[in-house]
Amino acid sequence: MRIQHAGDLTWGDGKNGKGNPEQVSLQTLLESSSRTFAFVLPKLPSPLDDLLAAAYLQARVVDEIEDNREIHWEHKRNRMNEVIGAMRSNDAELVKSIQRTFVGIEPTKPGYIPLLNNLDVVHEELRIHPKKIRDIIERYSLEMADGLSDPKIQRIRTLEDHHRYCHYAAG
Fold this sequence. Notes:
With 171 residues, the chain is mainly α.
C-alpha cells in the first residue's frame, strides 16, 4: 500500500491541540504507529504526555527512513536530518514539503501512513515547547540518525553489536 494523502483517516479528538476537528490527533498517530506507546503515554501528566508522544513519533519517522527499502541507503542520512531539522524549525511549510516527499513511498507498515501524512501535527506539538526541551529532542534524534545511518552499526554479528544497534533503533 502506497502512501496517499490523508483524506481517508479517522480524525482524532484534537487532544494535541488546536481543537481542530479536521486535524488528526497525536493519539491517533500513536495508535497507528505503536500500540505500546499509544497505551502508556496518555497515562502521563500533561503536557509531558503530548511532548513525549511527539518526540516518539519523530523518532518513529527517523526509524522508518532507516528501515524503508524504497529509500536508497545513500539518501537515508540526509532524509533523516531533513526531518529532524524541519521538526526543529518554526517553518510549517518546510514540514509540509518534507511530508510530501513521503507520498508514493510504501512504508514498512501500513500503520505508518497516517504518521507520514501528518508530520505537521507532530511539528505543531514540538514547536510549542521551550527551546531547551527541543534542543534535547534534536540532540538525541540526531544521535539516532547518526547511528542508524552508520553501515558499521548495521553489521550485527555479536550480542554487543545487537546492543549497539538497539541503542540507536530503540533508544
